[in-house]
Amino acid sequence: MKFKYCPICGGKLEEKFSYDEGGVPYCPKDDIMYFDTPTPCVIVAVVKDDKILLLKQSYIFKHSKVLVSGYVTNGEIVEDTVLREVKEETGIVVKEPKYLGSYYLSSREIIMLTFMVKYESGDIIKSDEVEWVDWSNLEDALCEMCEDEIGKSVVRKVLKNVGHKDKKAYRCDDGSCEL
């Protein structure tokens, strides 16, 4: 987010140069610089043996399944967000969050922090924001996530992390998915 007005005093911000950051919105009254602030969110691959948890949420993709995701709340560390979002959306408890990397979605100013977690306990209880949730074969996930390029990238990382030895390329019936 680019600040135009000071959130403290409401005054119009000026541009002030900050070393190697370049021009930054600045409030001379409150003597504060406001750096760009992308919104952090998590994307979580939940793994149980040779299965991965996939969801259907049409407001994200019409024809694709997705991984668990959600926004980091103020005062929350990212690893806690991972555990909370999985519990909220699916009802299950997970453990051992492992960071897999990040992606930036410029169209929505979102920094997506990706994780892999292990299933610990519980039965799936679908939240109201989820249309469908269930375990899928890890090998089939790429084809079930046809629209979700970032999600497929996370699944590829999961396959490598779990030591997937099969070198074959996975292709959907329409030929759109590959490992």
UniProtKB/TrEMBL annotation:
Residues 37-159 form the Nudix hydrolase domain. GO terms for molecular function: metal ion binding; NADH pyrophosphatase activity. It catalyses: a 5'-end NAD(+)-phospho-ribonucleoside in mRNA + H2O = a 5'-end phospho-adenosine-phospho-ribonucleoside in mRNA + beta-nicotinamide D-ribonucleotide + 2 H(+). Its cofactor is Mg(2+); Zn(2+). It comes from Clostridium pasteurianum BC1. It holds the Pfam family NUDIX. PANTHER family: NAD-CAPPED RNA HYDROLASE NUDT12, NUDIX HYDROLASE, NUDC SUBFAMILY. Keywords: Hydrolase, Magnesium, Metal-binding, NAD. This is NAD(+) diphosphatase. The keyword Mitochondrion does not apply. The lineage of its organism: Bacteria, Bacillati, Bacillota, Clostridia, Eubacteriales. Its EC number is 3.6.1.22. GO terms for cellular component: cytosol. CDD domains: NUDIX_NADH_pyrophosphatase_Nudt13.
